[in-house]
């Protein structure tokens, strides 16, 4: 029986974290699991709830917010299992998804990174389980709004593999870190997640480095989870600034110097278009003013997120 270290990083998500842990134990019957919760100095009652509800779960209190990558690396060092599974606290395991994902990994060992399908709370498809590597086309079509307008197209929405219905296996560039399985041997050869990515794009960086070593991440439709997404962020601007900073950092790390200003310019164009369009809508629909204000905050802080993580 394969053994898996499940690393769950907690940050002010007590209710979600408890539900995620419950679903892991309820739905995992065939895999030897070691659940490690890393709490990044939550200020809610996360630590107390976890200790009270799951006294046997290994809980590591970092005492500081290390970000996702930093928290995961702390958890991974505390385990020794054959596989490492990254699991977000805002997830719910469905129908033995961990067992199915581990079986899939054993059947496709060369892939190096394995993921499943993510669903919304109403069990409708959430297509953010995997995506393509950042490139000129994905950034351009996103900036122009074409990826959203033609979201079912794999040409215009290549970023999210728009024409893929998630009912078949597929090789992908990046598997989302909310449900992300990898062997410890590869993890250690890549030195885990790059902690310079405080939050967002760290899994993209890992997958690209795995591809460079001859692995090809792969998704199975049989392993399904619910993923709410972004529950530790209270506003759009906070989440988007971190997301854009992560993308900028990825571009700085992985793209040649001549491409970097082009790619970052397209990120800026995307935000500018969102800012202008939301402002115009707010002139007509007053209840949309809050959304316009959020995009204005994001645009005003462009110098910060365009620089990536320092």
Automatic annotation (TrEMBL):
Name under which the protein is recorded: Glycosyltransferase family 2 protein
Organism: Leucothrix pacifica
GO molecular function, one term: transferase activity
Domain Glycosyltransferase 2-like intervals: 6-136
Top-level taxonomic group: Bacteria
Alphabetical keyword list: Transferase
């Amino acid at each position: 029986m394969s053994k898996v270290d499940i690393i769950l990083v907690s940050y002010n998500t007590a209710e979600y974290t408890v539900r995620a842990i419950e679903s892991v134990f309820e739905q995992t019957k065939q895999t030897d699991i070691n659940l490690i919760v890393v709490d990044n100095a939550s200020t809610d009652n996360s630590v107390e709830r976890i200790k009270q509800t799951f006294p046997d779960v290994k809980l590591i209190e970092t005492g500081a917010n290390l970000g996702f990558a930093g928290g995961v690396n702390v958890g991974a060092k505390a385990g020794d299992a054959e596989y490492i599974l990254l699991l977000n606290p805002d997830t719910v395991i469905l129908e033995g998804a961990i067992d199915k994902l581990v079986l899939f990994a054993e059947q496709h060992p060369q892939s190096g990174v394995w993921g499943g399908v993510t669903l919304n709370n109403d069990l409708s498809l959430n297509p953010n389980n995997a995506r393509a590597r950042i490139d000129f086309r994905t950034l351009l079509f996103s900036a122009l709004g074409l990826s959203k307008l033609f979201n079912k197209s794999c040409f215009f929405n290549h970023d999210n593999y728009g024409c893929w219905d998630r009912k078949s296996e597929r090789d992908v560039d990046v598997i989302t870190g909310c449900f992300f399985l990898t062997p410890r041997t590869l993890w250690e050869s890549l030195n885990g997640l790059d902690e310079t990515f405080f939050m967002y794009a760290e899994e993209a960086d890992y997958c690209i480095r795995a591809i460079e070593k001859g692995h090809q991440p792969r998704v199975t439709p049989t392993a399904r989870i619910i993923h709410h997404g972004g529950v530790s962020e209270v506003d759009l601007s906070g989440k988007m600034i971190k997301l854009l900073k992560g993308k900028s950092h990825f571009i700085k790390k992985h793209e040649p110097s001549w491409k970097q200003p082009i790619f970052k310019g397209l990120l800026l164009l995307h935000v500018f278009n969102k800012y202008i369009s939301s402002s115009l809508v707010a002139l007509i629909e007053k209840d949309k003013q809050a959304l316009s204000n959020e995009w204005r905050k994001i645009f005003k802080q462009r110098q910060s997120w365009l620089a990536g993580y320092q």
